[in-house]
Every structure is written in C-alpha cells, then in structure tokens.
Amino acid sequence: MSKHTVKTIQAMRDNNETITMLTAYDYPTAKKVNDAGIDMILVGDSCAMVVHGHPNTLTATMDMMVLHCAAVARACDRTMVIADMPFGSFQYSVEDTMKNAARFVTEAAVDGVKFEATHNHIAKTKAVVEMGIACVGHVGLHPQAVGALGGLKAQGRDMNSARKVVSESLALQEAGVFAIIFEAVPAKLSDYVTRKLDIPTISIGGGPQCSGQLLVTPDVLGLYDNFTPSFAKQYVNVGQIMIDTFTQYAKEVKAGVFPGKEHSYGMSDDVLESIMKEFGEA
Question: Which of 160, 223, 266, 272 has a CA between 20 and 30 Å from the CA of residue 66?
C-alpha cells in the first residue's frame, strides 16, 4: 500500500473505517509500527517524558523534536507521520510558528504537524495550513497547559470546558486542519462533536465514537511506569521481558556461559604464534 495522505485519512473517515494511530520516537519502533499497518504516527512531545525522563512535556524543544521526527520519518513508507509542535514553538508570533512548522517538513520530512492550539492560536494554525503544511488540531486536555490546568485532568465535563471543546473544534476545522485529536474528553461529548464535524476525530481518552484511536506506544508496551493515564491499555509487558532478559544476560556473563565459541571470532594458530614471538608471552 502507498503512503497515507490527508486524502486517504479523510476517505477512511468518510467510509466509516476506523483510523489507527500510535506514537513513536525512534527508527526501530517506527519501523515496527509502519510494518504493522498502523495508519498514522504522532511523534509526540511526550518523548520528553517517556524517552528523556522529564516529569512533563514542557521541556521538549524544537531541536529535540526535529531529531526524533527525522528518525521516525525515515522508517515510514506507509504510515503518515505527524510532528508535535512543542511548547514555545507556536505560542509567540505567526512568523515563528510558520518557521518552526517548516523546520519539521524540511529537516525531518514529516507529513504534517500537530498543535495544542486554543482559540489564541487559530490564526497561526491557519497560516501554517496556508503554507501547504498538513495540520492536526488537539482539543480537550492540553498537557502543555498542565500548570494552568492544575494537573492532567479530563476536560469537557462541565459547561465551560465542554463549550471550549466544541468551539475550538469548529474553529480548528474552519482554520483548515485535516483531523483533530480529542484527549481526555467525555465519550458523549466526543461523539457529539464527531457528528458535527466533517473531518476525522482521533481519540486518546476520547471514547470509542471518534473516527480513530491513538495511544502512547510505551503505555501499550509496558515500557513507562512513571505515569499511566486511565485511558491507556497495556497489551504486553515488554518492560518485564526486558528486565528478565537483562537479568539472564548478567547471569550468563558472570557464569562464563556467554560469550560461547559461537559468539567469538577465530584466527589461525600460526598468526598467534608469530604475534607471541614478536611481542613475547602473555
């Protein structure tokens, strides 16, 4: 199958075919996601937490994100790759936002960018779309606003935050985004907005009625223990498999089992004897 585009993702939504999306931050993981047939990858600013060990996403930088995005993009010949605009990359001027979005396309060769764009950033989103860069919106919980929100809390349960989810979604669609991520939004509200919109909605804790589903890959694999949101599902505990494997490796090394003859390179006795004559006995 050829690489997904804005048009093929929209066609999936129009044909009621569920869109699949995962995060990835490096070449080998992205290659596996691509080869598994996942439709989209988000190179999320969550890499600051799950790769770099920071307590939140706010420490992700443009240079960090471009590096991760380029590695992921090189692995994907089928999956559409979306770069997450990190904190500080779009909160200033329209010109700065456009330059930063362009870096992802020119330096990392991604297929599009994503904004945690509130009403204050709709004009910037529109400007990037008008540059010819595919954009994904993001409503509900904005991890980049963790300080203002007082923590990573679901959004849309009360009248004010529900109104914000709906109005931002409509404004983002008007600005030209080709999809919107709904994070930690009540399922009933996501369903309502999904039916109002003409573009795909992708849920990460937004319920089953969105056009697609997104999860953070380290959560899926059991590789990140510091924080696991309630909407995440662990499909396998790769973390424990890794610990068991590393423990077995250490035991074999200490017992002299590894490396064995099959893991070592040989040489002729004549060469060794000549070396010993030249340099002396060991």
Answer: 223
